Amino acid sequence: MTDTVFPPHPTPVIPVQGDAGFPVRRIFCVGRNYVDHAAEMGQVVDRAAPFYFTKSPQAVLLSGQDMPYPTRTQDLHYEMELVVAIGGTAHNISEADAMEVVFGYGCGLDMTRRDLQAAAKLKRRPWDTGKDFDNSAIIGPLTPKQSNADIGHLMIRLEVNGTVRQQADLADMVWSIPEMIADLSTLYVLHPGDLIMTGTPAGVGPVVRGDALRGTIGDFAPVETTIV
């Protein structure tokens, strides 16, 4: 059947430097992947295995676009993250082979309705309303991977209104990129178009209307937005 009762929602497409766009299939987010951030949230990292939550593709907002302040929150937080774009299929892939399915990298903001997330935690409920909402995954243009070289030496940094709020090395991540991909591929079959937002370092905090955010990782294209 080809007819639909209404037009399908368009697939978000992330710009790629020097290439065609990257259509987004799914967004996986890694929780508590920096020890210092876990500590500032009153949590301890479980080193037995990563844990994940998801955002829908419709949460994507392209870098450079304004972010409307979301409804039902009084405590909107930024979380600056490395985004890993998947360009191959992976199921039960080994850590040794995991980098072969990486298409490239980008800068991303995991915007969070912190008050709703905190309320959900207290009631032992899912985080969906705190994490997966319109415009909550702000993604910068992707940079295709040039090799399987380790990028842990790169600095991840976020400025709000020109003031540095977050800064760390990617090497500070608890789980490496191959470890995350290999583990995630035991839970899902990863396909081209999937994105992994790899967690945020310490320094998260609130933003209000009028705040300008700019996040960078090495020479990757920055992620930028203004809260309106």
Automatic annotation (TrEMBL):
For whether the record's keyword set contains Chaperone, the answer is no
- The positions making up the signal sequence are none
Annotated ranges, domain Fumarylacetoacetase-like C-terminal: 27-228
- Keyword Hydrolase: yes or no? yes
Which InterPro entries did the record assign? Fumarylacetoacetase-like_C (IPR011234), Fumarylacetoacetase_C_sf (IPR036663)
Recite the UniProt keywords alphabetically.
Hydrolase, Metal-binding, Pyruvate
Q: Which PANTHER family match?
A: ACYLPYRUVASE, FLUTATHIONE S-TRANSFERASE
Q: What is this protein called?
A: Fumarylpyruvate hydrolase
